[in-house]
Design goal:
The structure is a single chain. The chain has 346 residues and is α+β, with helices and mostly antiparallel strands. Helices cover 30% and strands 25% of the residues. It is built from eight helices and 18 strands. An eight-stranded mixed sheet has the order 4-5-3-13-14-15-12-16, with helices on both faces. A three-stranded antiparallel sheet has the order 8-9-10, with no helix packed on it. The chain has a three-stranded mixed sheet with strand order 11-18-17, with helices on one face. α1 packs parallel to α8.
């Protein structure tokens, strides 16, 4: 939808249609944790070590800008966007020595000399267990994923973008004068140009693209009496993440406990990951407590050999914007704008 909105700006007279295979999007768009974040300190440092500082910081910049775009374009929309601060829980001091250097790098992105600051004084008041340090990021927050999607849809419709739901594309036949999209149940669709925004579900149509689906699992507790913390929280380089939703706790992650089983398109929770989440909940988030779990779900992200999104022109008439690496909320506005500009040039 971000791509469609930017294409509408660039091509005001063109017919623009979003084709969605489901009745509603069922990947990570509606099934994420609703974090408005751009990366915890240890995650960014790990990315710098694996990708190099230039690419890693470029990725952070894209995420940061994406969050700003959401706040600007959807400022009046009811998406429950709040800058409630983001935090990272650390069990040791291993990465703290690099925090000042990281802040120097991030100054050009956030405009602050102290993007990440120590907030150890809040550990006791938040009630966490088994951690030694807490890092605070005043730029991060949360939003309601379903309301974000609905607001984007309404905005797109107002600009004249058309939507075809429950329309699955089985094959793409590209010719010199047009593109034919073969649908599951017919009729076929025709276009002059197409852009694949299929993220984790791209393998069937684009088997050559470097990405793999990665399941992210989440649980939601019943109301917790006297819940002590407010904000969004990360741990273990972002592989665990949680936030309060009023007096409930939304907790996700634990994919790092079983990487191979989570490279899947099966969007349902599994016992081993859910058990890992519950252990984290009762030892770190709410030490000694076992709150009732009311809901569990899973969403499918797109990963690859590196974290940079794939934004490319594939052929004369086709483009792609894929592999958002679990940061689709923040990256989608920038990736959508980038691929729209690429289509204008192409």
């Amino acid at each position: 939808m971000w791509t469609a909105l930017y294409l509408r700006q660039l091509f005001p007279s063109k017919k623009i249609t979003v084709v969605e295979r489901g009745v509603t999007p069922a990947g990570a768009s509606l099934r994420n944790a609703g974090f408005a974040c751009f990366g915890s300190a240890t995650e960014i440092l790990a990315d710098i070590d694996s990708m190099g500082s230039e690419k890693a910081l470029q990725l952070v910049s894209m995420r940061f800008e994406g969050l700003r775009i959401i706040q600007k374009i959807l400022a009046a929309a009811p998406i429950d966007f709040t800058i409630c601060k983001g935090y990272e829980l650390l069990a040791d001091e291993q990465k703290l020595a690099r925090l000042s250097v990281l802040n120097e790098w991030l100054y050009l992105i956030t405009g602050s000399p102290d993007t990440f600051t120590l907030a150890d004084d809040k550990i006791e008041s938040f009630g966490f267990g088994g951690i030694s340090h807490l890092i605070e990021n005043r730029f991060e927050g949360s939003l309601h994923s379903g309301k974000l999607l609905n607001s984007l849809w309404q905005l797109a419709v107002r600009t004249g973008v058309q939507f075809l739901f429950a329309t699955e594309i089985k094959e793409v036949d590209e010719r010199s004068n047009r593109v034919r999209l073969v649908t599951q149940n017919g009729p076929d669709l025709y276009a002059t140009q197409i852009v694949y925004c299929t993220n984790a579900f791209s393998a069937q149509l684009l088997p050559q693209v470097d990405l793999v689906p990665a399941r992210g699992q989440i649980l939601l507790t019943a109301p917790v009496p006297d819940l002590k913390f407010n904000g969004t929280f990360h741990c273990e380089e972002g592989y665990y993440y949680f936030r309060n939703m009023g007096d409930r706790i939304l907790l996700g992650g634990a994919r790092n406990t079983s990487f191979q089983t989570e490279y899947t398109l099966d969007a349902f929770p599994t016992l081993p990951i859910q058990q890992a989440l519950e252990r984290f909940l009762s030892t770190v988030v709410l030490p000694g407590q076992q709150p009732q779990i009311e809901q569990r779900w899973a969403g499918i992200m797109a990963m690859g050999n590196e974290k940079m999104p794939i934004v490319e022109q594939l052929t004369t008439r086709s483009f792609c914007a894929l592999r958002l690496g679990g940061m689709g909320v923040a990256l989608a506005p920038v990736v959508g704008r980038t691929v729209a500009e690429l289509m204008r040039k192409g």
